[in-house]
Amino acid sequence: MKKLFLILSVFIGLLFGNIDCQAQKVGGELGNLAAIKKGFRNRRISSTDKSGNNGDWIDSIKPGDKWSVNISGAGIINHIWFTISPMNIMRNDLIFRIYWDGKSEPSVEAPLAAFFGNGWDEYYEFASLPLAVGPQRGTGLVSYFQMPFANGARLEIENQSDETISRLYFYIDYVEMKKLPGDLGRFHAWYNHELTDALPEGETEWGLVGMQTNNVDGAGNYLFADIKGEGHFVGINYYMHSPSPMWYGEGDDMIFIDGEEKASLLGTGTEDFFNTSWCPKTIFAHPYYGYARVNNDNGWLGRTHVYRFFIADPIYFNKSFKGTIEHGHNNNLTLDISSVAYWYQSEAGVLPPAPTKADRAPKAFIRDQDMHRWRHEWRKNRGNGSKLWGDEVK
């Protein structure tokens, strides 16, 4: 009897011990908050005025200059906040970089505002789970991405604009530990920008001006990530400027894992990849996806910012990850596209070359006056009849 009681006691202990262990893993994104952590110490580097006065900023980062801050040891950055003045400075020309573990090449490189969620050189509010741009008027830049490092970190802002940053305010919060666990990857972010090419036969979307052709291999797709190494892809901010009222989003996503010649992850349309549908033009904010900025011009003419974060569904890769998306069906549209991709790798990797200042310059808006000039040329090509309406076709 005593032997049986002992066996039952061990069994019950193991059972309830396992339940208790599993309970700490339940609860989604907030479930880990209840687990008591040991061996951590909170640290902060900020622009606080160490004299105790109210001059809580970094003065005067001139054109061509760089500001940087170093963190030593091992830890995890879990909060970054920036704001700058003057508030109309070209944030597209302030380059944000992060270097991990003493590396000479950055693992994060993007225009400052584009990294946090404001495209082009615009100021607007944006809210997601890992990134936000808050009030007032899109000036508070915030990250909650977890960013581990084993042997130091360096954060840097380079002023490539033509104006002096008169004030830089910042918080960088992190937890310090004796040794970083070996299974934590390094955070990466890469900015790309491209003015895409239309097809030789023209912008044939929806078959309006010519027959649509097929895209079976992804050649000519817009590239939003080109990663070498092991890790998982966790998100994208996608900034698109259309010079035409035509719907821009028939392009499919095509993702190539571990050197595939044909993409194994194939989508059904741009808005579908971003969890939306039927050519939206509505501001929408979900923690994982949404439309932070939409065009209010004619049709889909103008600028749109859409985002998706793969928080619950990361895309894993062992050797490489190539993320692409068509610009119109079979890449038949000229669009001005930029993006910031976010991922983790097993170690700090080397990013593809960054676009130059000239390459990433925002394109001008197409206005009603431009469309009227197009109509004038169209009228001349139709014989310049005095009652041409606009829907006449040959």
Overall description:
It is built from four helices and 23 strands. With 394 residues, it is mainly β. It folds into two domains: 41-177, Jelly Rolls (Sandwich); 186-363, Jelly Rolls, CATH 2.60.120. The strands form three sheets. Strands 3, 5, 6, 11, 13, 15, 18, 19, 20, 21 and 23 form an eleven-stranded mixed beta sheet that branches. It comes from Bacteroides stercorirosoris. Residues 1-23 form the signal peptide. Keywords: Signal.
Mean pLDDT: 92
Give the % helix.
10-25%
Number of helices: 4
Strand tally is 23
Radius of gyration: 25 Å
Give the amount of beta strand, in percent.
Answer: 35-45%
Question: Any idea what the CATH architecture of the largest domain is?
Answer: Sandwich
Classified in CATH, the superfamily of the largest domain is Protein of unknown function DUF2961
- Count of separate structural domains: 2
What structural class do the secondary elements suggest? Answer: mainly beta
Largest β sheet strand count, sense and barrel closure: 11 strands, mixed
Signal peptide: 1-23
Keywords: Signal
Pfam family, one: DUF2961
Organism: Bacteroides stercorirosoris
Summarize, please.
By secondary structure, this protein is mainly beta.
